[in-house]
């Protein structure tokens, strides 16, 4: 066991370990049990066990292995208490013995062309039997480890609504007996849009965290990019898959420049572009070219990737093709009818036609129910008001944005602006 610290330190270490290990635990138990909701429940049991034991005994030298062993033991105990599942227990024993012998399962490999446990689990949870609004929420909560609050922020919905969707989807998944499976052909194609949405939302949470003390969660960005690359190898002729990969690569290329030494946000127009990752930019541009060659340049992910490419191609802020970005956002808005996209368009319009034209768009969005608690609406409004010389109105808008923000780094930035400390022109998340 590692040296023990204070109980609060140990609890933070447990939760940090849990964020990293939970998807792997759920995937492993799902493979063993062929039951995704049960696997998720038992991984939660392993977390409870860690919270009970580690503060007393100290953090294990290999905390991930400890959680895995505990989760598997709980799975075996559960099945022993359930006589009807004796056959499954025997299957698990065979599975464990095979893993201990470290011999590859060639039959399973031949049957599973996905070849990635996490991606296969996402395809399972995105089953068409589940209502479309629930698929991504369930997957993000159960498999990817995002909190209900983080998922609610991603969908701009109340936490209670998202929680109800997740509970109902879990119940439906359990009652229907949906198997842990590898979908193929038309069935896989039906699930692909939901899988893309899940990967996209994982990346977004990593790119700008909904909650907590850190603005970035790079491990989520990396995992989403990895899943995207696996999906490209699986569906090489799907333009939107290439579009999503392009979007993630281009946005992630800026991560090293997006925070200062203490983790404070550095906004898009103030970043040191020499720190942008040129290799990732090249990969992103190549993926975008492939998406466009396949006819996907006007899709949801392809359009966003094209916007990110405008930023990536600009060696300095003043070189940015804001007119092109505004036009791309106009196409994206027509495609999605999303008030968030319109808010993004307002940022680009301000750079092309001035803050007054952009403020007109923002004021029109004030009544959108989806943006009622969205902190970036008053944040953008505050910036536009400041540029128009309406300083006191701007400070009030920034104060409202700070009150709505749930990420500590963003809240601190907005509070500084509310006190009159000038920051850069636009929020990084909206600027690209």
From TrEMBL:
GO terms of molecular function: DNA binding; sigma factor activity
Domain of life of the native organism: Bacteria
Positions of the RNA polymerase sigma-70 region domain: 22-81
Gene3D superfamilies: 1.10.1740.10, Winged helix-like DNA-binding domain superfamily/Winged helix DNA-binding domain
Domain (RNA polymerase sigma factor 70 region 4 type) ranges: 122-173
GO biological process, one term: DNA-templated transcription initiation
Listed NCBIfam families: sigma70-ECF
Database matches in PANTHER family: BLL0085 PROTEIN, BLL6612 PROTEIN-RELATED
Protein name as it appears in the record: RNA polymerase sigma factor, sigma-70 family
The species this protein was found in: Methylocapsa palsarum
Lineage, broadest ranks: Bacteria, Pseudomonadati, Pseudomonadota, Alphaproteobacteria, Hyphomicrobiales
